[in-house]
Amino acid sequence: MKAPTLFLAAIVLLLTGCANTPTSASRSASWWEYRQQVMQERDEGKLSPVAAEEKVAAKYREIYGIDPEMEGVFAYDKRLYEMAQAGALSLGEADALVLARIDQIQARNAADVQYHYWLESRFPPNGGT
Prior knowledge:
Radius of gyration: 21 Å
Shape: elongated
Number of domains: 1
Helix content: over 70%
Number of helices: 5
């Protein structure tokens, strides 16, 4: 096999792999759907608040891998749900604080993505070639 043919075959395989990779939006929707399902199980009494949070965190790691910011969120969330189980705050309060923290992280991540696109539009990778 000649070098150009091998190179083209490698590009085709790479593009095929990219085409089959789930988009960030579909992964996010999948995680949010799973979270909703787990929270419903929690609300039905099938899971404790802490157990539900642990399942949600495990699914996030399965989809996205380890994310240091979200690891901090999950530790914070777990502590809030421990406090709710102990009666120090209501489950509704814990849910509101958890969602606010997740929204804050997602907003920060969205801003980072926008900034990255802006940088690439001003300074294309590889000199724009």
